[in-house]
Write a structure and sequence with these properties.
The structure is a single chain. The chain has 8 helices and 13 strands. By secondary structure, it is of the alpha+beta class.
Length: 337
């Protein structure tokens, strides 16, 4: 009888232990699922005409109520902040980089550029650099001192632009270098680059044709996305005669095609009209200011660990509008080289 009693007691203890273990495992799993990292992440978004709207129609600045849903990595992300990009609480670092193979500024173009710089609000830091031999030579790191920026906006002479030592080879390789070596990198600040170039890749012996996409441009776009840099490529080619008659001028519309590819997934905006450089860069700079003015910094709580690069999906509340942003984002705005 004692043996039977012990067997019954042990059986009951085992069931109790197993039940307790099962409850503990379930509890641990529930705690683990509820402990998924909730990481604040800043997104720069803007509105654009949707499929059912006139593509040429002006779109007003993005409003919070325009956003129906945001998903990061396929998971809903809650909006916790909504602020204008310009004149808002967030600092924007805008690097202005120019093609070392061009004479931009030699015909008073820098007067319009300096006006654009001076009109930037106080939450914008401006830096300056040159596309040079697959790198960006920084002549002024981002600063709020407009006088320092104006001081380094020195136009090149025809001889300097035509010097083979000043060839950039590939403007998109230069942008990849900028993404990896951003000056005064600060994860709390937003980033954008205004790049003046014709967008032609001269380091390749064969120019791209038709609708073929360039792997160089695709690589630059991905690098900029990972670094949280929004590109605003501005088409500029020196008027004839060229600074160097032996320098390849690329295929028709190659630069504009590359610009469109660069901004397709990175959330940027191309600045050009037709095949030729504008007589004045002022109107396109005014357009860029309008674009920046229409953009918003949307802070969300992303489900995931900081430093994870994953897909971004944003849905608008109206079919007349689409919301433009990068194709993918780095959770927590952790910029990695």
């Amino acid at each position: 009888m004692v043996t039977d009693y012990c067997r019954v007691r042990l059986g009951g203890l085992r069931r109790g232990v197993f039940a307790g273990l099962a409850a503990g495992v379930v509890g641990t799993l529930l705690m683990a699922s509820s402990a998924v990292a909730q990481t604040p992440t800043m997104l720069v978004l803007r509105a654009a005409p949707g499929k059912s709207a006139d593509a040429a129609a002006p779109v007003p600045p993005l409003k919070k109520e325009d956003i129906a849903e945001i998903k990061i990595g396929g998971k809903p992300a809650e909006i916790t902040g909504f602020d204008p990009l310009l004149k808002g609480p967030h600092t924007l670092q805008l690097m202005i980089v120019m093609d070392s193979m061009q004479m931009l500024g030699s015909t008073d173009k820098f007067a319009d550029l300096k006006r654009f710089v001076d009109e930037m609000p106080s939450n914008v830091e401006i830096g300056v650099g040159w596309l040079l031999q697959s790198h960006v030579k920084v002549t002024q790191p981002p600063t709020t001192d407009r006088a320092l920026v104006d001081k380094v906006l020195i136009p090149q002479t025809r001889e300097e632009a035509g010097n083979p030592k000043n060839d950039n080879g590939n403007p998109f390789s230069c942008l990849r270098d900028l993404a990896a070596h951003w000056p005064n990198a600060d994860a709390t600040k937003l980033r954008a680059v205004l790049v003046f170039t014709d967008g032609i890749i001269r380091s390749n012996a064969q120019s791209q044709a038709g609708d073929q996409e360039s792997p160089d441009v695709d690589g630059a776009s991905q690098s900029l996305e990972r670094a949280g840099i929004i590109p605003y490529p501005f088409y500029w080619m020196d008027p004839p005669p060229p600074v160097d008659p032996n320098r390849s001028e690329g295929g028709p519309l190659e630069g504009q095609q590359n610009f469109s590819q660069l901004v397709k997934y990175s959330g940027g905006y191309p600045l050009f009209e037709g095949m030729f450089s504008p007589g004045s860069i002022g109107p396109l700079l005014d357009r860029l200011y309008t674009v920046l003015q229409s953009e918003a910094v949307v802070t969300v709580t992303a489900k995931g660990s900081p430093g994870k690069f994953t897909r971004l999906d944003v849905k608008a509340t109206s079919d007349d509008m689409k919301i433009v942003g990068p194709d993918s984002v780095m959770i927590g705005n952790v910029w990695k080289k």
